[in-house]
Design brief:
alpha+beta, 5-stranded mixed β-sheet, 4-stranded antiparallel β-sheet, 38% helix, globular
Amino acid sequence: MEEMRNLTAPRWRTYELSNVPGVESVAYGVVQPGRHDPVGVPMVRAGDIGEGAVVGRDLARIATAVDRRHARTSLQPEDLLVVLVGRIGDTAVTGPAHQGWNVARSVAVIRFTPEGLASGIGAWIRWSLKTPQARQVLRRLSGGAEHSTLPLADLKRLPVSLPPRELRARLLRTMSLAEQRMALNDQIAGCATELADMYFARYAQNNDHAYRPEVTIADVGQVVGGSPRSGAVDGAAPIAWAAPREVLNSRTAHLDRTAEMTWVPGDAVCGPGTLLVAPRPGEVRTVISTISVVPGRGTLAVRTETTADRLWLLHELRARSRELVATAQGEQARAMSRKKFSRRRLRWPDGDVRERFSRIAAPLHDRAHAALKENHALRELVVSEMAERPNEER
């Protein structure tokens, strides 16, 4: 009976990515961008892509002449951008706002025919890159190192499986509904955090009489420096590794997953509730991890003892984002100085003020966390549906 079902089940067919029906072209971007041109064409780099969107704020810009020499990657709406360096396989979809932008060598542009766009082939490839099968192939082709690179030729040859049209249409509807719900959950998480920020501003202003003098970050938390990503170790479990871009590109103040894993001794792992801090020109970003994590090089972690301490410190650091730039170091202040950061003074009120604020802020953060957990479940649902291939032919 099982054999009969397999014979009658719809067959999937596997193509190389560049040969998938509906794919018009696959190309990488600018190899030699030249000097930054303040009035030039925005150029998307690998680090500007995160969580399915172009999230970079300090975009590089290239001269118009350089852009014209790379017309093949001059962006159009609904192009699919794929990271080729570092977080290989991460994607973003362009919109009208990206019309005429370009991309760096570290990003591939997949463009679709009108028929491909109408049939949803872009969404299908985007979700295909999230499946365990694709992730395994990408790791093998790129070597899986921290600064690994995927050659464009290998991306073009990446296997992409397509089910029959009716089944694909049903799965695409599932993807669309999941993405709509995920977008709503992102808004919920963002609004919940903004409400907590507003309450913090009120508490910080109304309780300035209760601040303790000369309190520094090191007085209220343990500051942990970041480390390079390590390869697999026998007998050790992989732990999420938070590079600075994970912090900077997180859409919300809650980090619930990372693109890379690392292998370290247990005492080097920071548990859920750890604050992660990373700089970029003009600001320092702080998020709270909802998973066990190891800070990457260029990221600082802060461990606190109580929820009240954690939430007050989180919002204090968020409120002082621009001031904290003084604690960064290196080229364009893109690395954190653990010593300077630890010595930074805080507005730190008495315990009863922190507790009162926590009673308001904690439920808001719980709601944000619940929304992100639902997003994780939706991603797993769609990916598992796509990974089921009862019959497949090449």
